[in-house]
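User: Structure tokens for this complex, please. No commentary.
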Amino acid sequence: MGIKTAILGATGAVGQEFLKLLEERDFPCESLKVLASARSAGKTVTFRGQTTTIEEARPEAFDGVELVLSSAGGSVSKALVPEAVKRGCVVVDNTSAFRMDAGVPLVVPEVNRHAIREHQGIIANPNCSTIIMVVPLKPLHSRWGVKRVIASTYQAVSGAGQKGISELEQQVADLAAGREPKVALFPKQIAYNAIPRIPQRGGLCDGGYLEEEVKMIRETKKIFGDDSIQVTATCVRVPIIRCHSESINVELAEPFRVEEIREALAAAEGVTVQDDVANDVYPVPLEVSNQDDVFVGRIRVDNTNPQALNLWICGDQIRKGAALNAVQIAEDLVKMGMLAVKA
Ligand SMILES: NC(=O)c1ccc[n+]([C@@H]2O[C@H](COP(=O)([O-])OP(=O)(O)OC[C@H]3O[C@@H](n4cnc5c(N)ncnc54)[C@H](OP(=O)(O)O)[C@@H]3O)[C@@H](O)[C@H]2O)c1
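Assistant:
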């Protein structure tokens, strides 16, 4: 017995990770529905050793479901999540559809799990780059107060879904075979390149910023419940399959010693410190892939500002930046008694 659960977008990069995590963390599912587009209906996935058939995501598919883990893109969420809520489901949504809505908590458990209690059916998972940044910012903000953050990201192609992975792999294979690489999803060749444009189409905002950058700015303020935190960001796609990295400059309100910062980060929930550059101990995306924590290294005082720090952080954006964060929210719902596990 347990919770009647559904995954919306089960064939995607995040959906596949949901399947792995529910199994790995022994989440108390009584039953699991796997939903995707009509293209995937009838195909199967394996969950806990059993073959489960994918159903087309339609409003009626949510009848009798209690928890929905949703990751099928913003427009699908806008259409289907209210239908699921109408049918009594609690939805943890990975898309940007409801993140900034009043009445929808935007939650990273390590930072603001208390906000889960305010939900009215939907809990939003923040953007992956935001999640990875706010986990190590939390202990710094609690003790010294974060005044300003300057973030530069190095984002993996899987952040653009399964198609992002396929495009990089195909371009690498084409180049190795002496063929002209095909550019389709990303605006320029991504193999052996760096593209300062996320999302890859549209998303142009005021002042020359792009949507991903604006998400990091706005979502950080909402998660901390503090509009005074100033954030500026440049988001860059790099030819890495999985795991985002970020170079973060953080200005603090109170004086600090770098040893205290290292200790506070090492003690923080969800953070692993790897910081001994002389011995090549620092996080890199290949080693942080498939790990739960956000890893922090290269911790040093900003040479131009004694009130600021430079940090290098890596976090698996499909795991902590998406599926794991959502499953942790679901686990917290159970712990808080807001999602009953029937005996
Ligand atoms: N990838 C990341 O690192 C990441 C991180 C944080 C948040 N997110 C967000 O999570 C969402 C999914 O991302 P992803 O990377 O997993 O994308 P993806 O690999 O492209 O997968 C998209 C999923 O949505 C399903 N889908 C598409 N159209 C649908 C429709 N009309 N009805 C029902 N299902 C439909 C797809 O099913 P079919 O296979 O049947 O087409 C697939 O299961 C996006 O909103 C993304 O922004 C992604």
